[in-house]
């Protein structure tokens, strides 16, 4: 499906996509955006923590345009407008480039959160994206316990498989099938994408079978991922997220290397954006609860306190005679003097002069 | 249609990350007193550069702090790692490393050794701008090529196989034309039943073996200089080092306060004085000044990092190219890096061991407690001790690319800290004197993810 700007939306089938949520009374929505090195992902979650829309947009490189397309398409699917989104959290390599984000979180926190939501009870998340790989140990509450990132080399990532495809002159879809058909282990280096390409070309020149080469490269990547997993400790159940999880050959080799079954999510690429959206949902819910509690406190002692709450588009004021200028809870700036969307909360509680 | 997800988890205070703002004010507040150290160091190197003109014997050495012996013998001393670190801190290491690589010492070799060997190569050959064809090259080359050739070389490396061969490499670079002396510093394995930090039968015996070698070193120096060794001067030097070390440790201990009045980066800036500068009253005055400033900060409630929210331990040798950068980077995230293996466990950190009547034994003991010379059991003991002393929330492991000795046990140490104290950690790549191994995104991702984990941990603790 082609969308505006010539960017191809490779996956518009996220849960609820196109179904439309719409903003009803008392309901609110939040968004998670994951701007990775090759794709932009957006997810909208409602006030009950339900995912109502998701989008994955292929870009080719970290791209503001990709983010725009993913967000707009996601909003369209949910039949929402930007004004309906109470809070947005971004994650991924390009997280700082998401203009509408209220806050940023790392992919580690967000992938763990997203994977734990989609697969309750998960203890280990393997996230292999376009540019990096991560092993994340998840605790009983679905939160990050330990994590390990690959170093600066892109070995074993989506980029690594792109290099392999170029050297073998096959498409990404074909390379996994080739690997599953391969047998002989040619002991390809897993240390560096550049060296691996050289090795592949060398093996081709020696007359090695392309299936064996592909299998060997996949096996090497699985071995390298196993090294990352060792840093956080092997645990089960294991969930794989990120675009490379869509490569069935790598999943198979990784299962073999790990000695454990791997669960691959239906849409492994959205885990990070979903996690970001769920954190946004938690934060907004907590802010609303704080605001309600503070308002209740103020109401209980109306003659002594005043309170001003600014919750999304609605503003509530408990009248009094000592109201100071309202503050944004997140940046402590005056709401009327900066551009942050009013997020929540009670802004001032102060004694009333007699 | 909506996808039903499991119930949302408890609300968490995940506030490690910030609102996105283009401006990033410097939230670090470095000590002013350490600037005096910079002047002392500059003066020290200028002194080295003129050593030959003044008819002094010059010794090149690497590894541990033998300089009190050299000072007592009336020598001028050049510490290999220190000069490499200085070049890296000034971003002038490139020409020396290129010269070393051209000679055959490639990127996998310790960048301290590689840079210093490059300096050895450059010391022997003049490079003109005309020859290099690169404008400005001569200025960069000038400092790297400025070291006077050594009259002899002393190697005393603990816990590092590259360091232990550094002398032989230098020997070849200089055409096998100067004498060498190698002090053997055995590993303190710590695997006997009675072993531990500064205790056990292994600890009782091994320093005696090293003390005997130091006596032989002094005989070697006397032979080279044709001058009797001044033992009184050695005791005097060790008096100043002991005094300076005591002040340094007292000042460090004050940083257990929260918020901390000084950080790891201030201690990094104070390494040169305690490591290789001449032992004299100036050295004592320097650390008195540092301690005074820290005490004043505590009285005035001045913190080293604005809004300190996380206290972090730094494991790994300093990335000298990035001292100022990393100071600001960690502070940007409200992180006070308060202690580190390199700063707190490497330089005369046990002044009680110094006996002015038997100085060589205390020196031998210090050389053996170099933080890359311990077995794992002792390293774990030291790490946990520091974490407890300074109230550490997280550990930054500088995965020093060309320093295997420092890097090898790091993953086990990370696991120990997590298992025994619940302390989170992250790893980032870099190197001691080669900026090309550092990648900012790697540090940023790991650091922020660790802070998010700490936030989660704190939220859970509150519930």
UniProtKB/TrEMBL annotation, chain B:
Keywords: Iron, Iron-sulfur, Metal-binding. GO terms for molecular function: hydro-lyase activity; iron-sulfur cluster binding; metal ion binding. InterPro entries: FldB/FldC_alpha/beta. Belongs to the FldB/FldC dehydratase alpha/beta subunit family. This is Benzoyl-CoA reductase. It comes from Subtercola boreus.
